[in-house]
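User: I'm putting together a small comparison set for a docking exercise, and I want a reference complex before I start. The sequence is below, and the ligand is fe (ii) ion. Could you produce the 3D structure with the ligand included, as structure tokens?
Assistant: Of course. I'll restate your input first, then give the structure tokens for the complex.
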Amino acid sequence: MLAPQAPSTDRMFDAAATAQMERIVMDLGRMYHERNEALREVSRAHHEALLRLSLAADFKDDDTGVHIIRIGYLAEALALMLGQPAAYASMLSRAAPMHDIGKIGVPDAVLKKPGSFNPDERAAMNQHPRMGAEILGRSRIPLFQMAAEVALGHHERWDGGGYPSGLVGEAIPLSARIVAVVDYFDALTMDRCYRKAFANDVALGMLAEQRGKAFDPAIVDVFLANAPALLELRDRINRQPPSFEALVQND
Ligand SMILES: [Fe+2]
Ligand SMILES: [Fe+2]
């Protein structure tokens, strides 16, 4: 019978090298995870700061600050009703509340003015899409790219008569076309400092009137076809507004 052999030096060296390699792989895995967590944290903080700035801008012409929350949820619901993927709709729900962030740079005397603007006031007001896109920056993060696209495009008109670029039809990004419709409807149905809210049926009629003029006809059609569900969603948000934190990036 043979005596058991002691492990060769080569075998011991192999085992030590393998153990060391496993440790390195584990360390790299942990570092990779920590790096991703840190990036997510930075991105969340960035999003929250921009949302708070949007809230500050919204307070300039809405006492409650709930308009931007409603716009997020209504834009998401409308995107889903239009057949857009859930991931797109979810990103839009977080991008849309920042549509008027550029109003932070518009004087209150213009924002709160009842009646029509003189040319200088009109020029100041028409700056807010570009200012918004500027504030949101040229980020590589898809959420902020979409938010900048929405801020820049939400006052373009389907018929080309909008601002700042006079884009026509589908040249206007879909995200901005969706937000334009919900923003118009929501603004009509809320009290402003210079007028009372319009009743739902009056506002729906005004939206229908803009089909193919200010707004994408297909989006207006889907909004009108789903009006009861959208109004119910709006009323639910008004009864119990979701927390501000619920809007902050969560992935
Ligand atoms: Fe706007
Ligand atoms: Fe708005």
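The CA atoms of residues 45 and 248 lie 9 Å apart. The mean pLDDT is 91.
User: Thanks, that's exactly what I needed.
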